Predict the 3D structure of the following.
Amino acid sequence: MSAIELQDVTVELGGRAVVDRVAATVASGEWLALIGPNGAGKTSLLRAIARLVPYFGSIALEGRSTSSLSRTELSRLLAVVPQEPSTPPWMTVSEYVLLGRTPYLGPLGKESVRDRDAAGRALSRLDLLEYGARRLGTLSGGEKQRVVVARALAQDARIVLLDEPTAALDIGHQQQALELLDSLRAESGLTLVAAMHDLTLAAQYADRMLLLDGGRVVLEGAPAEVLTEAALAAHYGATIDVVAVDGRVAVVPRRIRRS
Amino acid sequence: MKALRRGREADAFRDLPAGPESARADSGPSRTTEDIRARGLTPLWAAGAVGFLVLSLLVGVVSGPIDLGVGAVLESAGAHLHLPGATSPLSSTEEAILWEIRVPRVVLGALVGGMLALAGATYQGVFRNPLADPYLLGVAAGAGLGATVAIAYLPEGLRGQRALPIAAFLGGSAAVVLTYAVGRSARRERDAATLVLAGVTVAAFFTAWQTFLQQQNTDTLQQVYTWILGSIPSTGWPDVVLILPYVAVAGVVILALRRVVDVLSLGDDEAATLGVHVGRVRLALVVAATLGTAAAVAVTGLIGFVGIIVPHAIRLVSGMSYRALLPLSAIVGAGFLVLADVIARTALSPAEIPLGVVTAFFGAPFFALVLRSTRGGVG
């Protein structure tokens, strides 16, 4: 059974289709990268999958239509790492990660030992156990990113959506964050769908890519099939060399005019 | 496509931090589960807050033009609680002053102060706005209009004690219902910012109406003005009985949902992806906070500043999340307003200073001091 199945998904904002009849299937345990120029509809598509915006068409997670799931059921199945997560400075790392247990508690609930164990496992897997009592306001950008991923893991969801997970990080931290996600995927069989701007990094980690432009899927396949010089010129308006590094592709922007 | 040899970039992978495997080997979750917890209301903070409240209540009941004495007040309380061997040393007049005037006034002050601080903290969390106060959605403007109508147009006899708070309560509630209606008409009722803007709109409209009526009825101007500046009335137990059900229900609802306020403080979308029905939960919290606030201001007028200063001072000093901040705000807010009322009625005795003036005059410098002496952020 596929983890995510999208059929004719359309999202309209202000009367304009920002996601236009998208159809795609994501296999369980797969890493799918959503790529495309600014305004291509990557974030809107992620938001539709998380049922944060109204959409037309159908979206099924593990064979169940998201519209038939309650908010709680959906959040047990699917966690989201937003592009700019809110990290209240007064909250401790433990408290923040424990918020990931909300789908299991109900509005009046209180965390049990089981919830604290789940949060503990998430912190442990992200090497954050020592940070439990630290306030979020005292963390660096890279540390915050790990804490946000820990919260998503504490949610015990099998599908994780990530919107530009490395946008605020330097190249070292970008690499560390993606390595971490990849190892978590390998250990737990997580299905990852990530909107990514950095095409070289996306090509290093994703199994497959979905290139969106104008809300539509224009190319789909393995990174080497999608990231071609012609495709990037056509959809990004970019002059780019595509090179192979140990079987993975990398993109190198080329100067158009030389002084 | 051009082929490059993998060069030095491959080395960058060597320096990754200790992987998940090593982290698990160092410290398994079972060993650390005790450390992984959300800081609720710790016994130390709870004891400190309750101690402050008890002290404030005591100062409140012993302060006044007639000196009753702490010992005598405590003995009288013991007698009222039927403690073995306790008898009241107070005369019947002093007993009446204590139990029919001072104690109800202090209890009323505590209920109103606790409610305003709790509502302020709730609004700040729900709307993710550090400057949100209990009057955010127009309850003050509506209550002001209701009170002005009652004072200006109801006959003296009817105006009395019952009609004024009921009119203020109805006005405050009507304003918030209108705010929700305006917010929903924007078809973005899940959006907290839309609701806040609707509140600003409704408050401006009700204030304009209230100011017009006030100017048209100059004979009652002083009365309206006094009500707007706020005071705790010395009218005995009826006012306590009047607002107690609202404050109790509001307090129970908000405190029961206090963990969800922490989730809402992450924003609507993140709260929704954590399984929270944002619209429903926010409505429950806003209705509770608004009902409690409307009931409180109905009997005391518009006491400002408590709803902002108390939660922020606690947050700055303790750095706690909403699950602890909300109960602490209620307890400390209660004590704060009782003390402010002591100053209001004793500083220029027998005249009374408007309570809103006292809360702002003493609250603002205190807040500045807390702000200066801590490195924490406000938010």
